[in-house]
Automatic annotation (TrEMBL):
GO terms for molecular function: oxidoreductase activity. The keyword Hydrolase does not apply. It comes from Parasponia andersonii (Sponia andersonii). Belongs to the short-chain dehydrogenases/reductases (SDR) family. SDR65C subfamily. Keywords: NADP, Oxidoreductase. This is Short-chain dehydrogenase/reductase. It comes from the Eukaryota. Pfam families: adh_short.
Length: 89
């Protein structure tokens, strides 16, 4: 993958977003009914400092992690009948 934002291909973009955001999003959808039915269990999302601050040569990676970080905070606050502490970032 390119080091500069202008060097990334569409496939690079799609791969990073799919790996860092979409896969976790779909896993959360699948886990939601299990968490609702269970008194135990958590979803733990692993993020990166790149999602919180700008770093050189990581534009798409940082965008995928920033998107993930913001999304999981929203999911954590909005999932019905699940205590927020069961979704960790």
């Amino acid at each position: 993958m390119g080091d500069n934002a202008t060097e990334y291909t569409y496939e690079d973009f799609k791969t990073l977003m799919g790996t860092n955001f979409e896969s976790a999003y779909h896993l959360c959808q699948l886990a939601h009914p299990l968490l609702k039915a269970s008194a135990n269990g958590s979803i733990v999302f692993n993020s990166s400092v790149a999602g919180l601050m700008s770093l050189p040569y990581n534009s798409i990676y940082a965008a995928s992690k920033g998107k993930s970080y913001r999304s999981w905070n929203t999911v954590r606050q909005n999932i019905d009948q699940i205590k927020p502490s069961r979704i960790l970032i």
